[in-house]
Structure formats: structure tokens, C-alpha cells
Model the fold of this input.
Amino acid sequence: MSDHALSVRELWKIFGARADRVVGTADADLPRSELKERTGCVAAVKDVSFDVDKGEVFVVMGLSGSGKSTLVRCLTRLIEPTAGEIVIDGEDVRSMSTARLRELRRHHVAMVFQHFGLLPHRTVVDNVAYGLEIRGLGKAERHAKAAEYIDLVGLTGNEHSYPDQLSGGMQQRVGLARALAVNPTVMLFDEPFSALDPLIRRDMQNEVIRLHSEVGKTMVFITHDLSEALKLGDRILIMRDGELVQVGSPAEIVAQPADDYVRDFVSEVPRSHVLTLRWVMRDPLPDDSLEGPVMPADRVVRDAAREALDSEHPVRVHDGDMFLGIVDDDAILRVVVAEEGAA
Amino acid sequence: MTTTASPPTRTVSPPPAQQRRGLGLRSFGRRGALAVVVVAWLGLWTALRGRATLEIGGAELTGFHEWLDRQRDSLAAQRDTNWLLQYGVGGISDGLNATVDFLRELISEPAFPRPFPEIGYLGVIGVFCLIAYAVAGLRSMLLVLVSLLAFGALGYWELSLDLLIVTLVAVTICVLIGLPLAIVMARSRKVDAVVTPALDLLQTLPSFAYLAPLALFFGIGPAAAVVTTALYAFPPVVRVAAHGIRHVAPTTVEASRSLGSTPWQQLRTVQLPMAKRTIVVGVNQTTMAALSMATIAALINGPGLGQPVAQALQSLDVGAAVVASLGIVIMAVMLDRVTTAASVRGELATRRGDSARLRRTALAVGVVSAGYLVYLSRTFSWAADVPESPDLGTPIADATSDASDWFIDTFRDSTQALKDGFSYGLLNPLQSVLADSPWFVSATALLAIAGIIAGRRAVVSTAICELVILGTGLWNEAMNTLTTTLVAAAFTMLIAIVVGVWMGRGRLVDTVVRPLLDTLQTLPPFVYLVPFVALFAASRFTAIVAAVAFAAPVAIKLVADGIRGVSPTTVEAARSAGSSSWQTITKVQLPMARGSVVLAANQGLLYVFSMVVIGGLVGGGGLGYLVVLGFRQAELFGKGLAAGIAITALAVMLDRIARYAVTRTGRT
Done:
């Protein structure tokens, strides 16, 4: 329990007049459209459970309407869950009083939004300091703190601009700084970069990677963009129609899709960028050479390809000191060439 | 009804072909049914004309009127014994009277034993300029300065300030009560569901309907004027502010919640600041509504510029009426521009990077100079007294009187012919059909027509309203008022369609005409009567022309917006198929803008009605005249109050029919 930053058990969110009467009945198992027809209720999140480790970047991925945004809002009860259990830092969120919940939001969990949610009538520094102001910090103190985080996200010099004088990417940096400024243990990102154009989006993704390595926060990141999920996620949870379809590392998802839905999803992914050697190796046959180069199991195929193909011998895959298997040229080529065939 | 109503948003989607054929059949059926009703009505009118018209003489009273009179008397008698009257109504009344008197002695009336108010002429100018600068900036300050100088030069310094006092006290009340209510409405659907229909009703009623019932409780004088004004001006600020607060970007509110803010913190740091501009727009609308009602409240002895207008209209002193209403126009423009500027100032100034220090210095200088002017005006009579020259009032009054006399004399024959032709050709026949048919014939015919054009729900509300009108004993008068209203509404729509199409098709026309219409819309209805009295003397015709002039701007704008909103691709397609301009207008633009045209008719009708009632002052007769008469003659008070009730019923009836007709066309 204690090594999880966040645990979710059997979480349900059903919208509708008598939502609380649906969970636990046979109706709850119906597909969405039938449930809607029978009860007038819409099931946004259905029986989802997962754990997020401390310091992990956990990505929730799904198409629009899959319930991922509702899910992330349930975590701090911005949307009140219908049923289930949420534990953050060892504390049960659903049983918290309003005051305790506010404390949680003020000190432990901060969120970054798709449309930024900045205050248009306030300058950048006042926006970043907003969470501290809500906490009741004095002006001088919160401005000093805000300045630190403005610097951290690279906005120094724009302290006294208004949000609409900034580009979309810069506005989201303000949103990031605002969330960071309260020094939370968990950060939630709700499709933070979907509204940005592709180049800016890539910059911001790199920014998140950099910040993660610098501040090491636990992050729950919502996205509908698979490449974003693969790029940022230590683990990925795939949702469809409110239900959890698969949880796993990027390589796991690509190499072993749980069903056709996920397979379809990942079919266009450049596999060599995602798959690690662990997923392409095999046990050595008696006549295999065991003199090839040694590589770690979590090396991505693309990074291993050049050296592996140059070598006369198949690559030996190790996890630490333990020998796991070998990867021959064919295995590498299967991954790389299949991709070009698909493209 | 100068302020109302942002038109409800409609989505006009082209009906599928199947439905269109059905519509064609149905509208033919509707037209046929309408024809049948009219023919039957005319037949019964010919046969039964003059019987059971429920006409009553000028001084004749029904039991209901006498009962109302007795209620007034008993209310007056209980004023010192009944707890509610004494401390509730009496307390409010005393408080308001005291407030208004205090402000009047502060700036407009001699504060005994001084021969001048506490703050005299120069002091008032200084203080108001300072306020204008502080809330709205330099340009507004200059406008206020010029306006105040004009009030003095027109010879209406005190009355102008009195009007300003009544208006601003009423606006203050509206904001103090309205803003919290708006906040609650924005946060609670239940409250919203209760308050919105009440506001709808308040906005439907013409200003005249407020006068009598409030006079019943508050008597006549400043308190009644303030309460009437506040009640009439109340809806816009509540509605607009609630809308503004409710539509603050939800992400921003959510972001604030996600950081652990309390509801109060959300309100203070997110919702109110972000809705500030919209709220000030609401205050602007409320201010303009208050001004228009405050002028009319002169009829129940409300202090201010409305009084000389009302007196001049009664004695047909065109010159005096023009000068006083010029003062009202100036005040309307001043209040409108200042409140509008106030809504953009704060943001604009910070964006432009105006130095806060500079502004603070300017404000400090302003405070000191205003203080010095106040000191002067309290110390020296030359600074306290309104200067006698320049006197613009007398020459303007003389010139317009002369011009009016000249016009009326010179064109006596042609205007008389116009009026007669209008009366005999159109007005009298229609009035005869409506008012000279037996009441049950007219009532049934109206029910049938309501049903045909607006559906079953309209029949129900029409029936209820007809019963109320019958109950007031003023059926015949109500039919007269209805006649005038329908004729004026028809002309309004004619003008609205012609000018609206012209504006909708030409950018240039639009840019020229629109600001003019916007300004016309800010003027209080009272002012509209004056030029037409100058041209046509007092008559029913005058009331109709004034009503058309009053209602046309809003209707024109709605039609123009509708025409402009027609998809340019469709118009282009019509043109490429070789349509002439006429064909494009009649076959494409007007049919596609039908929703807007119907909405324009709806709004036009209500505006016309509220003005027709006021036209009772200048020979329009009907219910409005009875209301005015009720304040002048104590024994007719009950009848005037009954007329007020009949006006309310008629307004609700017209509004419901028009509204259901709109939703109906909206749906098909």
C-alpha cells in the first residue's frame, strides 16, 4: 500500500438521476447504449482499478468519450464518484470531509487542464501564485515562490504579461507552473497539450520529461494521443467506453495488445521505437553463437539495431548479470521491415 | 420597455423536403381558417353592431372600480394602525423619501436655512466630473461636464439633478438586491427556475402598468417614483449578471476548485472578476431602463425632468416640452456612454499599461480640485448659483414653438387630410370591428385567431387575460387600445422590413444607420411623444406615430440581423441562377430570415403596446388615458387602477401570443 502514491479500486462514475442504484445490479454490466435506454443513466467510468507508484508517470489513454477525463476528475472528487475506493498517500479520498478534501487539493494534488483555465484578469505571476493565495499565503511570500516556478518552466521575463498576450504553449507553461507552485505530491494532467499545435506539443512533452526528472513528482497524464502516451508513460492504462482494457508498459502494450481494439490502436506505431529487446528475443538454440554483444533487456530495438546488424553474432540479452536470450538479425529486421511495409 | 431583451438564440435549420410540403399544406390551412374567422367576425359585426359592447362613460364607475377606491381609502386609513403598512411599506416609504430629500438638499434644492443646496453649482460639477473620471475615464468626464453645463443652460438644473437622483437611487437599489440575487441564480437551478419567469413578467409589462398599483401602497411622491423605477429597471441587471456569472469559463472555475478554493474564493477570485464586464453591461441596461421609468414617474409626482415634459404635454406647450426632453436626451446619452465606458475602462487601462501612479496623481488632483469647488460653492453665492447666461432654454423653446406653430398652420390641411384618411380609412373601421362587436364575439374571435397563429397554449392564456379584462369592466377601452396597438405594430413591421432589408443588404447603410438606432433605443419613451406632438398636435394619430417611432429601431435591427445572417452561399447561388434583387429578397432572404422577422414582430408589438399606453397622454385615449386620469382625479383612482390591470392583462396576452407564435415558427 505505502509504495503506491495513488490507488483506485473498482471506481464507478454513472451520470443520471438514479445513478447510485445502478452499481451492483445487472444493469451495470450492460453496454452504454442499452444502459442509457433502460435507466437514462450514462456510465462514464465502469469498474476501474489501478495503482500508481511514487514517482511514476502513469498515462491514461482513450478516445474522446472513453471516460478518461471523468476518471481523472474523480480522483480529487471534482466529479463525485458513484462507487469505489480512492487512496492517495494512504488516505481514503471518498470519506474525506469537504474541508479535508480542500486540504488535499491545496497541498497534495494539483491539476493541469486542457484549456489552461487561467484567470484572464490576472498577470502571469498572480496566476502562478493563485494556488498559494487560495491557501492563504501572504503576497510577498507567494510572489517569491511563484517567481521560482516561473523560472523553472522558462517563463522568466513574462511575469507581468496577461495570459492572452502569451502563445498557447506559454499559457500552458503558466498552467504547469501554477500546479507545480503548490508543491504537490501528485500531479494530474488532463490532455494538457491537445489544444497546442504539433511542434509546441513536442516541446511541452519534452518539458514534462525534463520536469519529471528534476522534481520527480508522481504524474497521472490523460491523453488521446498514443504517441504521447508511449513517449511519456512509464505505464499506460487504455480505456474504452468507460472500461479498463489494458494496463502495461509501452512495450507491453505494443507487443501484447490485450484485444483487437488495442491491436488496432497500436498497429500504426513504429514498433522499433517502442519494443525493447525483451519483446523480440528468443531462447538460444543449440547451434546459436553466443559470442555476440551484450545488451540490456530494456534497450529499444531502434537503438540496438545498428550494432546488432553490424555484428556477426546474435545479440545476447541480459537483465543485469542474468542471461535472458538472444536477438538475431532476423528478429531485428522483422520489427524494422514490418514497419516500412506498413508505412 | 426601452431595454429588453437580447433575442433568444434560435437555430434555424432548413426543414427537410417532406416536412416542407406538409408545412405548405398546413399554412394554407391556417390561412384559410384565419379567413373564415375574419369573415364570420365581420358578419356578426354587421348584424350585432353596437350591442353588448360593454362601453362605459368617462365618469362611469363599475362596482370593481368602486371597490378599488374603497381599498385605497381603507389602506390610507390603516396606514397608522396596520403593522405591515406602518413599518413595512411605511418604513420603506419613509426611508426612500428621506434618502431622496437628503440627496436633493445635498445637490439640487435649497437646504434650509441656506438659500442653496449643501453643494452648489460648481461643487456638483466638480464632484460629478471626479466620479466620471474615476469610474470611466477622461472622455466620459468631458461628456459629463458638457452635459451638466447643458442642464444649467437649458434652465433645468434642479430638475435634471432630481431626475439623476431618482434614477441613481433606483439603480443602487437594483444593484444591491439584484447582484446577490444574480449570484444565487447563477449557482442554483431551482432559484433560477423561480426567478426567471418573474423577471419575464416584469419585463413584459409596460411602464404604465406599474404606476397605479404602487401608488396604491406608496402614495404619490419620491418614494413611489423610486420603487416604480427600481421595479421596472430590476430585470436587466439580474438577468445579465446571472448570465455573466454562469458563463464564466468552466475550466477556470474547475481549475480554481482543483486548487482547493472555497465557493466564496471561487466567487471572489474567478467568477465576479471574469463576469465584471457583463455585469456592468447589465448595470448599463438597468440604468437606461431606470431613466426611462423615472421620467414617466413624474405622473405620480416623482421629482425630475419628467414633470415639465408631462405638464408641457398636457398644456401642449411644445417649446417647453422640447427643451425639457432635450435635457432627458442629454442625460440618456450621458448615462449610456459613461456606464459603457466604465465597463471597458479597467481592463483597457491595465492593458494599455497606463501608469497606475499617473492615474493616482490625477485622481488626487481631482479630489483636491473637486473639494475646492465644493468649498467655493458653499462659501460664495456666485459659485453656488446656476449662471443665468448662456440661456439656451428660452430661445430653443421659442424657436421650436414657432416652428411647430408654423408647421401645424402651414400644413394644417395636409396633416389633417393625412390624419383623417388614416382615421376613417383604417383606424375607425378596425376599431369598430373590435370594439363595436358584442364583447363575446370579439373575445371568441380573438381566441380563435390566437389559436390559429400561436397554438393551443396561446388560447389558454388569451382566455385568462380576456377574463381579467372583462373583470376590470374596461373591455371596450381595452379594445380601443388593442386597435391602436395593432395598427401601429403593422406599420412598425412595414418599416422594419423595408429598412431592415436595406440595412441587411448594405454594409454601408448598416454602418450609418445602426449607431442612430442604438441612440434612439436609449431614449426614454416619454421623449418620443414630443416631436410628434409638435408636428401633429395631440391626437390618436400622434400616439400611433410615436409608438411606431419608438418600436421601429429594435424591430429594424432584428430584421437586419436576420437578413445578414442568411448564408451568403445561398444568396450567391440564387444570384448565379439569375434572380433579380427583388426575387432574391422575396424568395431567399426574407423566407430564410423568417425567424428573425417573427421575433421582430414580437418585440415590435410589445414596444408599440407600451408606447400606445403612454400615448394616452397626448390624445391616444384608451387605457393609458384612464391611468393618467386616475392620478389626476381622486374619484377616478379605482378606474385608473383597473385600467392598469387591464393593461397588464393585455400585455401578457399579446406577449404570450407573440411568443408562442415565435416558438412555433422556430420549430417548423
User: Anything to note?
Assistant: The CA atoms of residues 629 and 640 of chain B lie 7 Å apart. The domain at 26-55+411-667 of chain B is CATH 1.10.3720.10 (MetI-like fold). Chain B touches chain A through 21 residues (CB under 8 Å).
